């Protein structure tokens, strides 16, 4: 297998995408397996929530039932749905953080060493799990609040923090430092970063939508089929952001002035 070197200059968008698909196609199983595992787990949990909700709605007290019976049903339903949704959210948060970290580490190792190991990447991610989880939580909350504020602030924050995971994995920085580091790397390249994110996320959404349509006859399991379909495309996101990270680091290095010449003897 030929070594895919990390970018040594800023790359145009088409070269970033081309390099992303070369890395993914040459190492398909390495990147696909972690996302497939997450898709199966979260898909099954989502199907359980769907089934429970459908069953509970079907068992709504009949018209004329006593107020006590209606209140009992409502609180039982609300508490159960809230608990399952919380479990699903926490599971997704942890597993998504781990799998994205693994794929970023593998992509970085392929570009720097010419090879990567899932086991080594997983071990490395576990060592970095706390800053990765903290960064994911902070960025998720900020982006979510920004999206509620007329959407545009959420998009800006998504662009600003898009390189948080590669920064933590490659530069060995903490969660808070990774936020400012990511913002610095994408500075003056807001539109380019937005275009990259738009392309890769639209591809994932499209794959998930097609998978859900295919699995629609399966009822609750359509969510699982959609998750598995999205897993084929999801590795493109961390791979492309890792390539983009190295390109932005190269751009930054080119802007650093050379050291002054030594004084004459």
Strand content: under 5%
Main sheet attributes: strand count, strand direction, barrel closure: none
If you average the pLDDT, what whole number results? Answer: 87
Q: What proportion of the residues is helical, as a percent range?
A: over 70%
Calculate Rg over CA atoms: 22 Å
* Annotation, overall tally of beta strands: 0
Anisotropy-based shape? elongated
Number of helices: 11
Number of domains: 1
Q: Name the structural class.
A: mainly alpha
What is the helix/strand order?
HHHHHHHHHHH
N-end to C-end Cα span: 50 Å
Low-confidence stretches: none
List the helices and strands and how they pair.
Elements: H1 13-26, H2 28-58, H3 67-113, H4 118-127, H5 129-148, H6 152-160, H7 164-171, H8 175-186, H9 190-214, H10 222-231, H11 236-255
Helix pairs in contact: 1-11, 2-3, 2-10, 3-4, 3-5, 3-7, 3-11, 5-6, 5-8, 6-9, 7-8, 9-10
What report would you give on this structure?
It is a single chain. The protein is an all-alpha fold and 265 residues long. The protein has one domain (13-253). The protein has eleven helices and no strands. It has helices at residues 13-26, 28-58, 67-113, 118-127, 129-148, 152-160, 164-171, 175-186, 190-214, 222-231, 236-255. The longest helix has 47 residues, at 67-113. The model has no long low-confidence stretch (mean pLDDT 87).
């Amino acid at each position: 297998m030929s070594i895919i070197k990390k970018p040594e200059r800023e790359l145009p968008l088409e070269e970033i995408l081309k390099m992303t698909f070369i890395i993914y196609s040459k190492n398909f199983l390495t990147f696909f397996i972690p996302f497939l595992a997450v898709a199966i787990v979260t898909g099954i949990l989502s199907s359980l929530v769907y089934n429970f909700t459908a069953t509970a709605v079907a068992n709504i007290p009949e018209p004329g039932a006593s107020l006590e019976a209606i209140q009992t049903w409502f609180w039982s339903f609300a508490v159960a749905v809230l608990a399952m949704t919380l479990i699903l959210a926490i599971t997704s948060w942890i597993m998504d953080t781990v799998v994205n970290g693994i794929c970023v580490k593998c992509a970085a190792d392929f570009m720097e060493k010419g090879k990567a190991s899932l086991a080594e990447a997983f071990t490395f991610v576990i060592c970095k799990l706390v800053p990765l989880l903290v960064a994911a939580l902070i960025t998720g909350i900020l982006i979510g609040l920004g999206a509620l504020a007329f959407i545009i602030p959420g998009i800006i924050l998504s662009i600003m923090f898009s390189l948080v995971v590669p920064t933590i994995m490659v530069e060995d920085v903490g969660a808070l430092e990774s936020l400012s580091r990511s913002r610095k790397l994408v500075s003056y390249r807001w539109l380019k970063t937005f275009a990259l994110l738009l392309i890769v996320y639209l591809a994932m959404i499209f794959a998930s939508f097609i998978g859900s349509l295919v699995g629609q006859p399966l009822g609750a399991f359509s969510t699982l089929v959609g998750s598995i379909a999205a897993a084929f495309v999801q590795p493109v996101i961390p791979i492309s952001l890792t390539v983009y990270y190295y390109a932005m680091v190269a751009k930054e290095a080119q802007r650093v002035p050379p050291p002054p010449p030594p004084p004459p003897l």
